[in-house]
Design brief:
The protein is α/β, with parallel strands linked by helices. The chain has 9 helices and 13 strands.
């Protein structure tokens, strides 16, 4: 679809309210377009099943972090399940995606869900978020270590933060569960919350997109004696790239 038409639809009829038919956030209020798979209940069904199994089905009162929240499918699902006694923190640096994330939080009256327009990283500061023709795509990302911006890629200046700082300041509770899907920056996000992981030992679901990300995450979680198993196996299970994995302490 033409990017300008897609943006127009997203900002007009795309804001019409619907109800999520199935999947992780079944029953939640949602917006019509884009990413209709979110409310149709057809998005990442294996990952949704893994979410449903957390805590043997009962995560009331848990503290959960969603890194790379996009429109908030998993953030909203977690907030519905942890209830007012719990806490969910959703991190999404992309301004277009963050606006829809925050809209979905408000539509569902989830006051115990905190939203942050920042990228979780190994340092607090600023970075460039790289985006293509679709600014609300799930593939916008902080530059890989060896990646150069090209003429088809626009850059958006965003804030970065070490999540350990939010725990130390009392802004966030230590996590019981963390989801990481940040398009190749997961190793730096995990490094930035390594103290929280070491002390609270949360369950984690991590999606991998690069070798550096895999190596860095395993470098933090391996010495902490985490075990991992595929939810969605990688095309080449030996490198884990392109797969989603459950990490258990």
């Amino acid at each position: 679809m033409n990017p300008r038409l897609r943006r127009l639809l997203s900002k007009t009829v795309g804001l019409l309210p619907v109800t999520v038919r199935g999947g992780a956030a079944k029953g939640a209020r949602w917006t019509l377009y884009p990413w209709t798979s979110y409310w149709r209940g057809t998005h990442e069904t294996a990952v949704c099943d893994a979410f449903a199994a957390l805590g043997n089905g009962d995560i009331r009162g848990w503290s959960c972090w969603d890194l790379g929240a996009h429109f908030g499918l998993y953030s909203v699902a977690l907030a519905m399940r942890v209830g007012p006694g719990g806490q969910v923190a959703a991190f999404e640096p992309n301004p277009d995606s963050f606006a829809r994330l925050e809209r979905h939080r408000r539509m569902n009256h989830l006051d115990w869900m905190k939203t942050y327009q920042v990228a979780a990283s190994d340092r607090s500061g600023c970075a460039d978020l790289l985006a293509g023709d679709e600014p609300d795509s799930t593939s916008t990302h902080l530059a890989y270590d060896d990646e150069a911006q090209n003429r088809d890629t626009s850059a958006i200046a965003v804030r970065t933060i070490r999540l350990d700082e939010l725990v130390k300041s009392g802004e966030l509770r230590p996590p019981h569960f963390v989801k990481v899907d940040v398009e190749g920056h997961g190793h730096k996000a995990v490094e930035g919350m390594s103290a929280s992981i070491s002390s609270s030992r949360p369950l984690m679901i991590i999606g991998f997109h690069s070798k550096a990300e895999v190596d860095g995450v395993l470098g933090v979680l391996g010495p902490l004696h985490y075990r991992w198993a595929p939810i969605v196996p990688a095309p080449n299970p030996r490198d884990m790239i392109g797969g989603d994995y459950l990490f258990t302490p």
